Amino acid sequence: MTKGANVSLTALGQDAGAVVVSLGWTSASGAGDADVSVFLLGTNGKVRSDDDFYFYNRPAAEDGSVQLLGKTPTGSGDEDRIGLDLTAVPADIARIVVAASQYGDACFGDLDDLRMTVADRSGEPLVGFSIDDASVESAFVFGELYRRGGEWKFRAVGQGYETGLAGLATAFGISVVEEGEDGEDSPTAPDTTPSTATAPAPSTAGETARGTRTPAGGPFPAGPVTTTAGAAPAPIEPAAHAGPAEDASAVAGVPAQSRGRDGSVTRGAPTTRKKVTLPRVARKSLAENDSWQPARLFPVPTLKSDREREVRATSVLLSVMTQVPELGRRLTAAFGAPAGRTQTFTEVSLPHGDAPRRPDGVIRIERAGKLWTALVETKTNGNPLRAEQVQAYMDIAARRGYEAVITLSNDVALDGAPVVDVKIDGRRKHKVDLWHLSWAEVAHQAQLLIRHEGVGNPAHAWLLQELLEYLRHENSGCHGFQNMGPSWVPVRKGIEDETLNMGDERAVDVVESWERLIRQVCLRLGGELGQKALPVQRARRGSDPRERRLAAAETLCVDGRLSAELRVDGTSGVIAVTADLRTGKVRTSTDVPAPEGPTALVSVKKLVRMLAEAPADLHVESLVEGGSGARGTLERLRPEPGNLLPRDGAPVSGFRLTLIKGMGNTRGNTESGFIRSVDDAVARFHQGVVARLGPLDVRAGRRG
User: Fold this and answer.
1) pTM above the 0.85 mark?
2) pLDDT digits (tens, 9 = 90+) for 501-510
């Protein structure tokens, strides 16, 4: 769409009652960012109260009409998603304005590819809009949804302003309080005399509304503000898909600056705060010695039986989900749950045959007077889910009209499939979805929130930290995937003594367990980095996973190797991981292009300098056309970088960097275990090697 154009949502899709709005941008430096905000406006162009303003410190409406779903990394930028349930929007709300703002001296001209997308509840895009004229603006109204003739329409606005979030909030009737010099909110007596806010004329195509040049974050009026001049007008209905000039007058006027009663500009900072994250390094302990254990909200040392672990883990997770809406929404949205008021329960008794069943937990979400319900079945300490138990909960959910059954265990689901097989009675009209959640995924999402993306307030951050401490405790039983399965020992022994036959089904089981392990490695790495990490599938899209595993099983039987590749968002390369069961070694590697330089020797010296802090046992191999060149460990190459040059003078196209680690022999999660070996190898390689390379274009390391 072009700036100013509008379109009916019902004309774009049949299911327009709920939409997901995405705001996106990229940054060449990777440092740029912005925060989204949503305003619910009445027919007068103002919020009814401050409760109609949604931003990072107030991410969800109690009625489920608005839900800020958080940021998702995309390449060199971010995408911020907002869930809007239009059926739950109060009747006296005429417009929903979607905006974004920056802080300090930052402006939207520093960002590239500004865009807005509206998708239906299934994620199918309905309409998109790009902004290509951003410069010094610190706030942008991307677009708005508004009622017209009993239906919802979308208008592409693309209007920028230099007043930041406070200017937007003030224009739409939000009170902004001045902040004192010490950083605390300065008490200001209520002002009964209305202040005025001047508003510039709305911009036309290719222009941005600007007033007097002001800092990106301000200025802001002291005390409560009532905007009288320049009030945001109600939208004027243009023709469908009108051009920019036709709909220019419909854009909400936002003041370029806010003035006090005497007309002077009052500077300050809004009382809104950035989201809270916790530092990686904890404060120095005040304990006298290591035997003093810090008090924890969720103690675990007394847990002795698997039943106790299951009950405690379920209650801990479900309670934190209700108290920290960012975590609760992030987990339940993946299961198709709506945004709304959430309550959770444990040990609920439900009738089933001769004896009632007691699922470990129940999640209920209310949206617009309707209930979404999911039963939760939990396993800890590596215990497998029992198909007959899950089947019983599926039957109960179908009879009672519940929407989902969620299994939660240390196992990791593959290809979005459940980890247990159940029978679906096709005669039932009510469909029940079966989902699986891994404890590793729970820890991953919690770590993303408190280390990278932030939550609403310090109490929420502390609750998530306590949840992480609980999940990581050795007695919790919530350690993630920790067993390669019953086929692991016979397959490994068959490889060692060369008795494993082609077509052995146990090799396929080991390959499947290997895929689960790699997915968990990606979750842990992504949580540490604050970026999405995913396995790379070289197979053709839509190919049968069974066929892919059969091919990998053949390689395992012939070469004794398990191989995988993974990619981290924001990087152009992949990390190759190979577990050689014959030699008992785990190899992690990646290929990098030769750094620019006038000669090959200069390129080699640049690479060695870049790897100054890398492990000394890192293997470096020069790559030449048609094969490999010289090789050596970093320890030997540092004093003599020229040893990496091919003797025949062949041009070097790049280098292969490899770390080799011995693998554990056991199936479990002990210090010497195979799973721990692979996890540690990938973490060490990324931290010690990949992170040191900086902007180099890291490519796929050839597995071999």
Assistant:
1) no
2) 888 899 999 9
